[in-house]
Design goal:
heterodimer, A: about 260 residues, alpha+beta, Alpha-Beta Plaits, 4-stranded mixed β-sheet, two-stranded antiparallel sheet, 7 helices, 12 strands, B: about 475 residues, mainly alpha, 3-stranded antiparallel β-sheet, 3 strands
Chain lengths: ~260, ~475
């Protein structure tokens, strides 16, 4: 289908036509809310442990969180299905244009939203403008916080430093961060495929949250490949996209009420 | 100097009874003093300092050292974790302070530039006091923006400085527009403050000794008061007076776009631009009233320059701004409510019934009800202390308004799971710090530069005169040709 680029709104039409490269499907009907994805994400992406006080104050460093809601008033409370919420990697991301220093660009090769940690100056405008509220800010230098250290003969030793993933930057305070769809894994899979002279196979690359999910509620893959599992699942009738009315073109489809 | 005379318009209205009671000499313009005497009065008000001044100065300097310098250093050293900002209120009081101080700074330009362009005579004795507010307020606004940055030591990345990586700032970002607008405004308003100051600095240079003479000599740029110098100065002031008015309107509109361009319930409102400009004028007028009252009460000879008529005129201006602000206030909230968006509905309920509802109702009381109901009264308008009290309450209300717009509106977003109320921590100290720094600058300026634009008052008194017609004195006003 050809799009007349001279028409008003042509850019939007192009973006809508492009489904995006990488995408995810989350089946809320099978999600048990076990938070394994949250833990796996924290291990994979070197997320900080912020401690009890800051977590209680709303400064948790989670790139994915399990939202729990309920309907009705106590005592007739009915729990609804769990809602894992992570960066939707929007095609029209509201966080991107507002950054004054281009720390939130859109990756043209992977078609996802990037966060450049060493460019970020911490205006936090992107987080304000994110309708999904999935960006988390490094309020302190949590990774060198003495609360995580052991005192060995007068020297502070950080045992958690041993579990850091060498493929991922450890963020210092004052920068914004968010889900990257495990871009280090994407790059690894693409490099392997390239060295073997082929395309990345469906299911070859799995982000940490999908890998850890015991109920297989999270499916990840290429949205631009109509044969892939993820694009077939995303086009089911029970698929919904969150806050679609804002025209953010989210890449994550939620399956609900099956 | 060629002078054409005409009847002062007020004299033609024929309220004879009122005019007999009203002595025209109550007005500054018809109560001239010899130039030398007036210059000496201003110099004396600038040079005399009592021990009370130094006590207040010391307290403010202590507050600046602890609450501004130390607290900001502590914030930089420890990160924003010591502040109260969190998800979802990523912006806290820092941005409230920014918007508030930019609002305060609007009064200076409004009173000075717009009233100068309109040739409103009552502006003459207090343009300088208002212009100082612009410059000093903008310094606080800029400091508040930088306090709020996560990595303030990299703030130069926000400026379009050529660099070897060829990365430019993102000109799509409203924050970028904001930065450019505020920078323009700071530069423009500082020059606009300085230009009308030159003749007074020259006057002070000729009447002072010691280090003050050196100080004024440097600042006066060798102004001698020749015809040519005056002509150039008037031209420059005219250019700046006209040029700074659109800058003033644009700067707060652009500040409002920081919010209005964002996809947030309560923020994405098209009326935010004029609403913020009117809000800024509202708080600025109130702040001018407070400052004028304090000047009159604490400095020597100020009761000659600042009279009932000035407070009266300022009160009328405040009343008009109150009505305009009221219109935009209700326009903003009612149009948003009428939009029927469910998140906006949740937000409006949160404002009306939530834990911060007291702020919302105080806002209605202080910003709309009190000024609109009291400033009708001439006696209240002419009482400096009452006017200052109303101005102070307006500023409290306007601070609450900005507080509601930034952290309280941020509480409500489209993800109810994250709704959480913000509570300030170190921001409270830094707020005290910015207020103290503003007052400290003002106190220092009151002893270093003439706070009354003497030449403007003298120019005004030259054009106004009382002519004897029969048995009565008729006030007449003329224009320089």
């Amino acid at each position: 289908m050809g799009i007349d680029l001279n028409l008003v709104g042509a850019k939007g039409a192009i973006a809508e036509e492009a489904e995006g490269k990488w995408g995810m499907v989350i089946d809320q009907d099978v999600c048990t809310g076990c938070q394994a994805c949250v833990a796996a994400c924290a291990m994979e992406n070197n997320l900080s442990f912020v401690g009890e006080e800051d977590a209680g104050y709303g400064r948790t460093q989670h790139w994915i969180r399990i939202e729990r809601f309920w309907e009705g008033a106590y005592p007739e409370v009915k729990a609804t299905s769990f809602q894992p919420m992570l960066c939707q990697q929007c095609g029209h991301a509201p966080c991107e244009p507002v950054c004054p220093v281009f720390a939130t660009p859109h990756s043209q090769s992977e078609n996802i939203n990037l966060q450049v940690y060493n460019r970020c100056v911490g205006t936090r405008y992107c987080a304000n403008n994110c309708p999904y509220q999935v960006r988390s800010f490094n309020w302190r230098d949590y990774h060198i916080d003495p609360m995580h250290a052991n005192d060995v003969n007068g020297q502070l030793v950080y045992p958690l430093h041993n579990q850091f993933n060498p493929d991922v930057t450890v963020r210092r305070r004052g920068v914004m961060e968010k889900c990257t769809f495990c871009i280090q894994r994407i790059h690894k899979a693409e490099d392997t495929a390239k060295s073997q002279g082929r395309e990345v196979r469906d299911g070859e690359m799995v982000p940490a949250c999908a890998q850890a999910c015991p109920a297989n509620a999270i499916t990840f893959g290429r949205l631009d490949d109509p044969e892939s599992l993820v694009s077939q699942m995303a086009h089911q009738k029970r698929g919904v996209k969150h806050l679609e009315e804002l025209n953010t073109l989210p890449r994550i489809t939620y399956l609900k009420e099956g | 100097m060629a002078v054409t005379s005409k009847y002062f318009s007020g004299a033609e209205k024929g309220h004879e009874t009122e005019h007999e009671e009203h002595d025209p000499r109550e007005s500054l313009m018809y109560d001239p003093k010899p130039r030398g005497e007036m210059n000496a009065m201003v110099m004396e008000s600038m040079m005399t300092t009592s021990w009370k001044f130094w006590v207040v100065f010391g307290i403010l300097a202590f507050l600046v050292a602890t609450c501004f310098i130390y607290a900001w250093g502590y914030l930089i050293a420890n990160g924003l974790g010591v502040a109260g900002v969190m998800r979802p209120s990523y912006w806290g009081i820092f941005l409230v302070n920014t918007v508030f101080w930019i609002g305060i700074s609007h009064a200076g330009t409004f009173i000075s530039a717009i009233l100068r362009v309109m040739k409103a005579e009552f502006r003459r004795p207090f343009t300088r006091a208002a212009e100082l507010m612009t410059t000093f307020g903008l310094i606080q606004a800029g400091a508040s923006i930088f306090m709020h940055l996560g990595r303030v030591w990299l703030a130069y990345w926000l400026f379009p400085i050529p660099n070897e990586r060829q990365i430019w700032p993102n000109f799509h970002s409203p924050l970028m527009w904001d930065l450019l607008a505020i920078t323009t405004y700071v530069l423009g308003s500082t020059m606009y403050l300085f230009l009308p100051l030159i003749p007074d600095l020259a006057m002070a240079r000729d009447r002072s000794t010691g280090w003050r003479k050196t100080f004024f000599k440097i600042l006066a740029l060798g102004f001698r008061g020749t015809e040519g110098e005056w002509r150039h100065l008037q031209t420059a002031m005219n250019i700046f007076a006209f040029a700074i008015i659109p800058v003033m309107f644009s700067v707060h509109t652009i500040v409002s776009w920081d919010f209005a361009m964002a996809m947030r319930p309560g923020w994405s409102s098209t009326v935010f631009g004029p609403y913020f400009v009117l809000g800024a004028l509202h708080s600025g007028m109130g702040a001018v009233a407070v400052v004028l009252c304090l000047m009159r009460a604490t400095m020597k000879h100020m009761d000659y320059f600042l009279r009932k008529e000035h407070f009266d005129a300022l009160g009328k201006l405040m009343l008009i701004v109150t009505f305009a602000y009221t219109y935009f206030f209700f326009n903003d909230y009612i149009v948003q409510w009428y939009g029927g968006d469910k998140w906006t509905d949740a937000l409006l309920h949160w404002l009306e019934e939530g834990p911060m509802a007291w702020m919302f109702y105080q806002l209605l009381l202080f910003n709309l009800a009190i000024p609109a109901l009291t400033l009708w009264n001439k006696k209240i308008r002419q009482n400096p202390w009452l006017l200052a009290l109303i101005g102070f309450l307006i500023n409290v209300g306007m601070y609450w308004e900005r507080y509601l717009i930034v952290p309280v509106m941020l509480t409500i977003n489209r993800m109810p799971f994250t709704w959480k109320l913000y509570s300030p921590r170190i921001e409270i100290f830094l707020t005290i710090g910015t207020f103290s720094l503003f007052l400290l600058f003002y106190l220092a300026a009151s002893r270093l530069i003439p706070l009354i634009p003497v030449w403007e008052v003298q120019e005004g008194q030259m054009t106004h005169s009382l002519r004897k017609v029969g048995k009565t004195h008729v006030p007449t006003v003329s224009e320089f040709e």
